[in-house]
Amino acid sequence: MTEYKTAARLNGLDTLRAAAIVLVMAYHYMVVVSGKNTFGFMTEIGWAGVDLFFVLSGYLIGNQILSPIAQGRDFSLKTFYIKRLLRTLPNYYFILAMYFIFPLALGEKGAAPTWQFLTFTQNFGLRPGQTFTHSWSLCIEEQFYLILPAIALLIASFKGSRQLAWIAIGLAVVAGMIARSTAWLEHGRNAINAYDYYEHIYYSSFARFDELLPGVAIAMLKNFHVATYSKIMRKGNLLFVAGLTAVGTMFYLFSHFLVIPGYGFGFLMTTFGYPVLATSFAILTLSALSTNSILHRIRVPGATSIALWSYAIYLAHKPIFKLAISPLTKMGIDTNSILGIGIIITVSIFGGWLLFRLVETPFMELRARMYSVDGANGRATSNPAEALPKQSEAA
Questions:
Q1: pTM for the whole structure
Q2: Would you call 115 exposed, middle or buried from its count of C-beta atoms within 10 A (0-12, 13-18, 19+)?
Q3: Largest CB tally within 10 Å, which of 32, 94, 171, 283?
Q4: Total tally of structural domains belonging to the chain
């Protein structure tokens, strides 16, 4: 049993990761299995689990990139990319292979070309109902991982790089709002239909990348504004209350005011709602990082394991949902009953654990032997013990 599995965890981040995957599963249960609001309000806002993942990824990856830069240490693009690929590709390609090996059981109404799946670009032109649609968010994250370190190194090469970095983040957020508003006016309700909304806005890299930026902003504060970050960290419980209030308010607005009944999100939600929600999640993330916060101090039972398996569960749960429907129906088990729901959710989590254990873990152990996991600083080590992850920020 390696330290990759047993390392000390950050409770707050684990809780948020676990919450994110639970939300996603609740939403996809309606999409794939039940066709109805099975989990009530959690189903309604379940789509936002991906937005929370975006913010967490923005912080974790941003911190790995910015920490060595802030400390004046060498940062190797090659090492960063290799470590990212060892983290993300094995699970992804395994599930992708399952879709191609069992097209009749797992296939949907059409699929992107194979080269797009292999290059994480299938979110371009993606429409609801196609094969492996939930990979759209992975595309955006992989594209973000590809671009962010190069941009960070470029900005760091200029004088006044801190100010330039904040300006770049601000301009990127504005660019995201412009991209969404323009796309909504062209492909929104009055223009075409909801399927075009998903293709040109919801799944679009240009329209969703800015949700990772609040996480990057946290990493900026932590590494380049240490005194300010320390002051913020002293307000952990205040951040927790503020974050919950902000997220709850946004969920209420999504459900009652920023949605067009029978269609989807309107212009205001599309243009401004996504980055505001991401900022709200960023406040919760700050609380999770504060040792003074109840979110940081309390370990929610099961959250550590679910968080550790979350990437594998995300990839595996939707095809497992689909595969479980027929056998349960043949056995006379209603997939909307407590028994049916319990079986499907349990099997999906177990499937995610298997993927984590048999595919993800060996490659993470290989990565640990190859490199230090100290903030992706690019420093290889010949000491295996030194190379193992020490805490849950090592992504």
A1: 0.91
A2: exposed
A3: 283
A4: 1
